[in-house]
Write a structure and sequence with these properties.
Blueprint (H helix, E strand, L loop, with lengths): L6 E7 L3 H9 L1 H7 L3 E4 L7 E6 L6 E11 L3 E6 L11 E10 L2 E9 L4 H24 L7 H16 L3
Antiparallel strand pairs: 1-7, 2-3, 3-4, 4-5, 5-6, 6-7
């Protein structure tokens, strides 16, 4: 048993498991809903993956390894910054895709978070990305504003409110 935080998020998407799998693993599709990033890999067990900026800089803000890939049911990856020193090892993200009639239950479990601060970050990040993914799959368009912008605005307002000046 670990004292390290774990984040779990469940969403329901009107799509097939194959469509959800494709949206999680196709670089061009991830670029549509993942805010200026795409996910690059061949998605084979043991392969590397990168969360690459789409600005042409070639910078990967997150990297990891594919631990498990069972299309279209389950994808497990490690996740860390490219230069992070994490004594307990990288985070681990599991995507479980379960069909139910005309919908899919997508469960994202992010384990081995380094601390409560990382938990707060992923608690804002995953719901934003998954809301955009859901909207994209159901409508063919992403949300009109990036949900992560709301978090940044709330954080800035909170910092201004707590500023003793």
């Amino acid at each position: 048993m670990t004292d390290r935080p774990t984040f779990v998020y469940v969403t329901f998407i009107q799509a097939t498991p194959e469509q959800v799998w494709h949206a999680l693993t196709d670089a061009d599709v991830t670029a549509e809903y993942w805010a200026e990033h795409c996910n690059i890999s061949d998605w084979q067990v043991g392969s590397a993956w990168e969360h690459l900026r789409t600005d042409g800089s070639g910078i990967a803000d997150l990297v990891g390894t594919v631990l498990e890939a069972v299309p279209p049911k389950r994808l497990v990856i490690t996740r860390t910054g490219p230069n992070d020193e994490r004594p307990a090892g990288p985070g681990r993200v599991t995507f479980d895709i379960e069909p139910h009639g005309d919908i899919v239950r997508l469960t994202v479990t992010h384990e081995n978070l380094s601390d409560d601060a990382e938990y707060v970050l992923v608690s804002a990040g995953w719901p934003s990305v998954l809301a955009n993914l859901k909207t994209f799959l159901e409508t063919g368009r992403v949300l009109p504003q990036g949900p992560w912008e709301m978090y940044a605005e709330m954080r800035a307002a909170r910092m201004a409110f707590n500023d003793p000046k």
